[in-house]
Amino acid sequence: MQVKSKNIKSLSIIIIFAIFFLSPQIFQRSLIVANDWLFHMNRYYETSMQIQTGHYNYFQSLFGFNQSGRIINAMYGADFAYFAGAILSLVKSWFHFQLILNFLCFFSAGFSMYLLAKSARISENVSLFCGIIYMGTPLVIWWSTTQGFTGVGAAFLPFAFIPAVKMVQNPRNPIQPLLFGGVIALLLSIHVFTAFLAVIAIIPFFCIGFYRAQNKIVMLINAMLAVIIAICLSMNTFVAMLEVQSNTLIMPLVARDLYGGGTFLSTGAMDYNNFGLILSTLFLIQLVVTISQWKELTTLEKVINVTGLLFLIVSSKYFPWNHLTDWFPSLLSIQFLRRLASIPLVLLVLGFGITIDRGIQMVKNIHFKKASLISLSVIALLSTTNGWQLIENQARRWNSSEPLSGDTRAAEILEDDENKVRAALSDSDLSKAFTVSQKPTSDYLPTNTNLQNGYSAYSKEILHNDLNLNKEVTAKSELKLTWDSNQSDEENILLPVIIYNNSYVELNGEMLSSEDYTLSEIGSLILSNNHQKNTVIVGYQPSTLFSISLFIKFISIALVVIYLLYQLFKKLKKTSKPKNKRTRS
């Protein structure tokens, strides 16, 4: 009972801190519209409208992204997009939706880090400290302030290291397939890049665990089972991405250089690339402890600290990235080195927690222990206040003359009146939010050329297409476009809709083959001008393999739920049995 009481207390404190991070927005009723807001909110608006109307289309954008039919969610965490869309369908407010998503992000970060620390056998108070510190780290804050989606992935990342810690801790049973496969599947459903990073960072834990395992064959079998579980639970993600990539796609813009986006240590305030005084001190302590006390460290501490420090160097300006990208230009697709910083943030905070906890346990003086816990509390408060300040700076813009964040560089501003901007973003008609600004993002558009940057083409052909037409969604979840070709004297008509390999096009009731139309360099549909009223229907026919993948996914989820309920039933039945009482004769 005492253990449960401590857990509830820690959980409550994590919730309080999550609300603390939301307070700048709550108190100012502020919506933060930053650089990636348009991209991600279009994604969630799409799934929300699909849920509300019942017109489901896993691939095409029927409502968001200017009803262009382009594929985004299938390439970018569709499972989480539908989860977020369900929330948006319920609240029908961008402000409340942002508060809920931000709360989930902060709470998940704190709770997952707390559970990871507990799995590493760190004491309750220090585990809570680790959770609170992690909530205020730059990457987690990044989602709230700029809608950088890596922040959401970072919030769930600590879950992935719980099975990694168990690999080293438990030589008898290093891998629990459902736990390991389940957390990787969770990350894949949210952010594929974060899942990829997690798998790489877990390799050292796996190698050490395999070396220490009492039965290496069983460990390998369980590892394969974990892989199968992860694949089955994420089958739709893999198959959809492979299917869409059968097209030649315009990938997200590569960085000009990686050095500029590298992280660094400092003695100042924390920022997105700058770890600030507290985290920098914490990381340096772990570096010194690892080097000076190597022989005294446990195997688990060694693998945590070394892996964390290696990723810290790789994600920083202290690594010669610009020289490396001269030899391997494809590395520029990483875009921002801060994305790699999620690994050291998790592992070095965890390693610091182990170091501090061991130090506190070694000292028997109760007053010293109390002083240590007070010091940790002060450090946690200072760190979270730093993160809170970053959020407050962004939230303050909402009531200024420029409600849209200053980092919306690539967005096209459609409305200059700040009152109209705030009104549109606060309207119960969520689509009005997309009338104040728009962003010509070209990610995952199909191309028949070597086009690397489709921003200008997308802006011209989709966002600023002069053709006067009407768009609606059919009962079969297709896009229906109607227009009068007499409005143009051009030989060809370019329609603001994107065509992929598996798309089908129907003109005035007649199914067209790929020879009956042409495509622009970003996949926009081009038809010959017949100088009459026309109706075009554009749909998407998923492969049979994708349908099978969805079936496998849902069956796998059902089996996992049944198994967990069975285990819960067994546990409840075991605890409910009355204990035999000895009677005196």
From TrEMBL:
Keyword annotations: Membrane, Transmembrane, Transmembrane helix
TM region positions: 95-117, 149-166, 178-211, 217-242, 272-291, 303-321, 341-360, 372-391, 545-569
Coiled-coil region: none
Keyword presence, Membrane: yes
Protein name: Uncharacterized protein
Species of provenance: Enterococcus casseliflavus ATCC 12755
